[in-house]
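Quick question, first post here. What does this chain look like in 3D?
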Amino acid sequence: MPPRPRFPGKPDPRKDEHRINDFIRVPVVRLVDEKGQMQGEVPTEQAKRMAREAGLDLVEVAPDVKPPVCKILDYGKFKYEENKSKKRKAKHHASELKEVRMRPRTDDHDFHTKLNHARRFLEEGHKVLFTIFFRGREMAHKELGKARMEQIKRDLDDVGKIEHELSMLGPRMHLTLMPRPGAKPKAPPPPKPAGAAPAPAAPADGSAPAAPAPAAPAPEPKENTNAEAQNK
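> Answer (accepted):
Ran it through. Tokens below.
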């Protein structure tokens, strides 16, 4: 039968990167107490006793120094914060730099298509590098590229912020946007409910639309002439 861990419900330190409590077997440790204060070199058994009295764990945080550094802390909370930090770093490294290329005279349809792609990249957490290429005589009209870049800043301001301001490198004009923390993208307009009656169209002359015609009155019930004739 395999030996039971020293503290049930806690991860087995033999399978973890940290040694804790009775798995720390060196005679002396350099101790940091639960308040974060350095206590200097302390016998390991004394450090374990201090951790038990505080209702916490003795965790080896720097095993490569002599003597190793140990802290008194809540190991479950320590592991949670450590895993949270690792996930945050992994998410940060997963972001990529996307490039969106265009020309100073790119037509409006293609421009807005590229702008929508850039918006999606920013919402997914990626940085976006905008590059405008100038060729030949286009170099004499850099104001067209600057106008495009200013429009990009305005249209994507809700989801992105400037990381690298507008710059010129040879025949290329660059602008880099990064995702705006906590930004909420613009929501599309809500769809109309099914079966809703369309609004009346306004007359061409600009006058107010005519009021709907009143409903026709219900017909009055006919008298029973046959029954009256028999009574007479």
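The CA atoms of residues 104 and 115 lie 14 Å apart.
The beta strands are 28-32, 38-43, 57-62, 69-73, 97-102, 127-133, 160-169, 172-179.
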